[in-house]
Amino acid sequence: MEQDIVRAFLEDRNVIKRLVIKVGTAVVTEKDGRIALERLQVLCEKLKELRSQEYEVMLVTSGGVALGRQVLRDRISVHNSSCSSADLQKPAELDGKACAAVGQPDLVALFKTVFSEEDVTEAQCLVTESDFRGKDFQRQLKETVDHLLSLKTIPIFNENDAVSTRTDLYEDSSGIFWDNDSLAAILAKQLKSDLLILMSDVKGLYSGPPSDTNSELIHSYIHKGVASRRSHFWSKIKSGTRGNGCESKGCC
């Protein structure tokens, strides 16, 4: 029933034209950190399908840190093959920002390869939290993205983690945004998106950490003091083919 409601909502062109879709690390990578190529191919096919239906599609993707960590671990493993047994016992400490610097270009290159097979042009847009503090940036961001979308290009966004000034990529919740979920939400607002879809391995949007037993699924949110401004959420919409699936969370 919920999936039927979502499909009807998406098919109403008077309501939906511009989409922000965020894919989590669990969607684009396997458990060992390697890229989930088959899921990536399915995702790109679906994005092309949406674009061919005249939707304006923007993608926010995680996975760069995980991919970079795997690349660096593989390199360390090769190096350690010629080291002593004592050296092999030393755990490799990998900085998240360094992993992002290595993994982000590889991730975008993979998207470029898959999109090229679908005859789709993509564009990379890296941002940091400090960027959004300036009105000039916000104006330029919208102008650039509007132009890219008019050219049937799919912008791919990610935080530029390698130069982020936040002390912890995952635990620092101060400031304007603190992860790609919140980045996607800000982009959806700044770029006047009609729908935000978050694809991950959790059931939906929670009132707190999903691992906390006291956290509850949020189905709707009324903006304080403005009863007419209501955000609706759906959860746990299965997607994917070829034996691969993930969960989608939506907000409109």
Which features would summarize this protein structure in a list?
252 residues, EC 2.7.2.11, Carbamate kinase, alpha/beta, single chain, 8 helices, nucleotide-binding, glutamate 5-kinase activity, Putative glutamate-5-semialdehyde dehydrogenase, Glutamate 5-kinase, AceGlu_kinase-like_sf, eight-stranded mixed sheet
Task: State mean pLDDT (0 to 100 scale).
Answer: 80
Biggest sheet strand order reads 3-4-2-1-5-8-7-6
User: So, CATH architecture?
Assistant: 3-Layer(aba) Sandwich
CATH topology, what is it called?
Answer: Carbamate kinase
Under CATH at level 1, the class stands as Alpha Beta
Q: List SSEs in N-to-C order.
A: HEHHEHHHEHEHEEEE
Kindly give the count of domains: 1
Main beta sheet, described? Answer: 8 strands, mixed
Helix content: 25-40%
GO biological process, one term: glutamine family amino acid biosynthetic process
Keywords: ATP-binding, Kinase, Nucleotide-binding, Oxidoreductase, Transferase
Organism: Rosa chinensis (China rose)
EC number: 1.2.1.41, 2.7.2.11
Protein model, in words:
Pfam families: AA_kinase. InterPro entries: AceGlu_kinase-like_sf, Asp/Glu/Uridylate_kinase, Glu/AcGlu_kinase. There is one protein chain. With 252 residues, this protein is an alpha/beta fold. It has one domain: 3-Layer(aba) Sandwich (Carbamate kinase). The protein is built from 8 helices and 8 strands. It has an 8-stranded mixed beta sheet, sandwiched between helices. Strand 3, helix 7 and strand 4 form a beta-alpha-beta unit. The longest helix has 22 residues. The chain is globular, with a radius of gyration of 19 Å. It starts with a helix and ends with a strand.
